[in-house]
Design goal:
Blueprint lengths: L9 H18 L8 E11 L9 E13 L5 H8 L10 E12 L16 E16 L2 E14 L5 H11 L15 E18 L2 E14 L2 E13 L24 E17 H4 L14 E13 L2 E10 L10 E11 L1
Antiparallel strand pairs: 1-2, 1-12, 2-3, 3-4, 4-5, 5-6, 6-7, 7-8, 8-9, 9-10, 10-11, 11-12
């Protein structure tokens, strides 16, 4: 574990504030985009949605605006310029704004808890491209994501958690002075899933494998998994942190529709900033486990243009000394325009 010391500089502070301004301004761009088939989604991730714990990945918020890009848009031109092995066109695209909070299990302690994960707040914006195309009897779904933002006090995670806990009369978090310092983050992620559809009991049963990879100072990993879905036809299944993206939407919009899903995912994790600590300076860190596994499941329920989705995940231990595996859930509310 690296020694715990912080040496912020004026130039670093200016850079981080500029990065934060970029994230916030870029996330507002979709409001000015003239596009078809728009969907606005709000996703809330919290450990309280799946367990009674209040620690580790304790809270997440995502604002997602998905749309079909125009043929001459910069997103469509970018998709066609990329190698065909990555993506050949953008069937859909999205802008995303994300805020996340990480804490140790015991938040009432003021001192540095060296054998538990660091306090960390993240805020970042993302751009995503999605492609769907048939490959033989399978449907291939490809997602590309670019995320830019920062980790550190400028995320205001400490103030947000303290205010929420004050309003809910919960334990006051006292260790935020030990959080990771301001640092810009940039990450590129690719995920590809293959789906095979079969009629079952009047609905559609879909299943298939997935692979993924991420590169950046927030996450660097390789992943593989398998998903199943039964119900009405949909774009995919919900993805949970650290997987970005939004493929939970049901295709139809007539009356009541629904689906159930389950997913298994394994990661070889080479970098996790929220565990490894700051990249360019000393900070609190823990010894990250390289192999991590997830099991998730949930349901989606839609009426006309509205949809609510619930997902819960159980994740294996992520670092040495972690006493129990983590559980958290996500609730997503979507409206199609």
């Amino acid at each position: 574990m690296m020694p715990f010391a912080k040496h912020p500089s004026i130039r670093k502070g200016i850079f981080c504030k500029a990065a934060l301004s970029f994230v916030l301004s870029s996330s507002l761009l979709p409001m000015a985009v003239a596009a078809e088939d728009n969907t606005l989604s709000l996703k809330f991730e919290n450990d309280l949605f799946a367990s009674s714990d209040d620690g580790h990945f304790t809270s997440g918020f995502e604002l997602n605006w998905m749309f079909k890009p125009e043929p001459q848009s910069w997103m469509q031109r970018l998709a066609t310029a990329l190698p065909d092995g990555l993506i050949s066109q953008a069937d859909r695209a999205s802008y995303r704004l994300i805020h996340q909070i990480y804490t140790p299990d015991v938040i009432k302690r003021r001192d540095l808890i060296e054998d538990d994960r660091p306090y960390a707040g993240l805020i970042y914006g993302g751009v995503s491209l999605y492609e769907d195309k048939p490959v033989g009897r399978w449907q291939q779904a490809t997602d590309l994501h670019l995320d830019v933002g920062l980790v550190g006090p400028s995320s205001q995670a400490d103030s947000i958690q303290q205010e929420v806990h004050r309003l809910t009369d919960s334990d006051r978090p006292r260790g935020w002075r030990n959080q990771l310092d301001d640092e810009p983050i940039i990450n590129f992620t690719m995920r590809r899933q293959w789906w095979h559809d079969t009629p079952l009991a009047g609905k559609q049963f879909s299943h298939g494998p997935s692979v993924g990879a991420a590169l950046g100072n927030l996450y660097t990993y390789a992943s593989a998994g398998y998903s199943v879905r039964w119900g009405d036809d949909a774009q995919g299944v919900p993805t949970l942190t650290p997987n970005p993206g939004s493929r939970h939407q049901i295709h139809g919009n007539s009356g009541w529709q629904w689906y159930l899903f389950a997913n298994m995912e394994g990661y070889y994790m080479a970098q996790n900033l929220t565990l490894d600590g700051n990249t360019f300076q000393d900070s609190h860190s823990v010894d990250r486990k390289e192999w991590v596994g997830d099991i998730s499941g949930g349901l989606a329920l839609a009426w006309e243009d509205w949809q609510v989705t619930y997902a819960a995940v159980a994740r294996s231990r992520e670092f040495d000394g972690q006493e129990e595996s983590d559980k958290f859930g996500a609730v997503t509310l979507s409206k199609r325009f």
